[in-house]
Design goal:
Helices cover 13% and strands 30% of the residues. The protein has 4 helices and 9 strands, in the order βααβββββααβββ.
Length: 198
């Protein structure tokens, strides 16, 4: 088991990272409570050329600033004024690519997650979907711009690798506004996991 180093996130191939992150374990330490889950669904966003990206056409605001940092930080934003969503910033500085963590399979601190979610852990809705996954892990705006190599939020490689037959690819969800980019197969998921949207 090893925490992913900063160099891992500096990879400019965000599609590769979105798929490679499947099986890795995402941890948070909040209020002295450790929670963690295996990543089973992701979405890739490829930056200034991606009509679905917050950084499309080089848009740069105080909200999107973490996306422009060197890979290895968290980009957390509020969706619909309700759900915090976690993105893993990738690539180099000024190249705002990222991977959205859509779903996790709960592993550590499940009782803590249940208190946050008010949903039974065995139900898929416990942590499938980016808002549910973030809430289960206690991720809120305070995690925005946090280093993924720190001790508050991090990802570990625990040696689990899925073979290509175990991984599904599909269009991203909820981005109809992105026109032709909405149909791109940039969502990756573990077929056998009940926590991943098929």
């Amino acid at each position: 088991m090893s925490k992913l180093p900063k160099s891992y996130y500096n990879n400019t191939d965000t599609l590769f990272l979105a798929e490679d992150l499947l099986g890795k374990v995402l941890y948070t330490q909040k209020d002295d409570l450790l929670t963690g889950g295996r990543i089973v669904e992701t979405e890739a966003y490829f930056g200034v050329m991606d009509k679905a990206s917050h950084a499309f056409n080089g848009k740069r605001t105080s909200r999107t600033e973490p996306m422009y940092r060197e890979g290895g930080v968290a980009y957390v934003y509020l969706c619909y004024g309700i759900h915090h969503l976690l993105n893993i910033v990738t690539s180099g500085a000024a190249d705002p690519q990222c991977v959205l963590i859509r779903s996790i399979e709960p592993l550590v601190g499940i009782d803590v997650m249940a208190l946050r979610r008010h949903v039974l852990p065995e139900k898929p809705s416990f942590s499938n979907g980016p808002g549910s996954a973030a809430k289960a892990l206690g991720i809120d705006a305070s995690f925005n711009d946090a280093l993924l190599t720190d001790d508050r939020i991090w990802i570990e490689d625990q040696g689990l690798k899925y073979n290509p037959a175990q991984i599904g690819k599909a269009a991203r969800i909820g981005i109809a506004y992105a026109q032709e980019h909405a149909a791109l197969p940039l969502r990756f998921f573990v077929k056998e996991s009940k926590y991943a949207r098929k």
